[in-house]
Amino acid sequence: MPVFAGSALLVAPLLVPLGQAQGAPEPLPAAETILDAFADHDLVAIGERHDTKELHDFYVALIRHPRFASVVDDIVLEIANAKHQPLLDAFARGEDLPLDAVRCVWRDCTNSLLQDGDPQGLEELVVAVRERNAGLKPEERIRLLAGDPAFDWQEIEAPREFYRELSRRDEHYASVVEHEVLLRGRHALLLIGRGHTSRRSARSGGTVAHRLEKLVPGRLWSVNLLTSDDPRVREARANWTAPSVLRVESTWLGELTPSYLERTASDAYPRLAGAIDAVLYLGPPASLTDLQARPFDARFAAERARREALFE
What we know:
Layout: E1 28-29, H1 30-36, E2 43-48, H2 53-63, H3 68-71, E3 74-81, H4 85-93, H5 104-107, H6 120-133, E4 143-148, H7 159-166, H8 169-181, E5 188-193, H9 208-215, E6 220-225, H10 231-236, E7 244-247, E8 278-281, H11 298-309
Parallel strand pairs: 2-5, 2-6, 3-4, 3-5, 6-8
Antiparallel strand pairs: 1-7, 7-8
Helix pairs in contact: 2-6, 8-9
């Protein structure tokens, strides 16, 4: 099994914040606030804790929102191999393809070795887009974009070849957004792990958000799933309803220092303020549940075992 150093999938609980408290955050209707953000931004990113059921339920509800297709042109997926973009396009358009025919999209991504089965939430999301597109004119349809590097697992013969593709994830995702969304004058919802959404970055080339902020300053609005059990969050959430979005700037939420934010030479305890714009509240951490993956079929289970053997 490969080691995913710095992976956004390995998210620890938020730490106790530093500094003095500021204003109280105001809970806002989640779907409406996210859709309203597209009035002033080309891109809205939702930083996720992967395989959280409540978050994927929120995605499906958002896609079904009456306004969604009128403000969002594309959804960029992290767990999707760009090699299979034509297949993803065909499925989203409603062509005669069963879901099983497009499972290679996520089975062949760099994160596939972290999956114990087919991701239920992602499958429900792509089906929801297909169903929504069925009632839309061709020019109004939502496009699904694969954000993971395009590569062929059959050509991976050594760990170093896999790690080369893994190291390209932020670069490739940002490039897809640049060429398929921004240069075409479109608007996109970016669904990606929280570790990729900070505007501040110490890694070579930067996170997805860091790269996009340099490319189109001020055109990205990002909101991360809130899983903090900080005492101030515990006290305040008694007055919050789920789902809600709460802005972090000029509030004490901005002082939270989650472990998924990268430390830099000048910022040993990076805060949410300046890194993202808001948090998405879907309930207390203890109420959030993990989706159970659907077991792989026997044929792919054998292929998965072959891939794992490369790292033994």
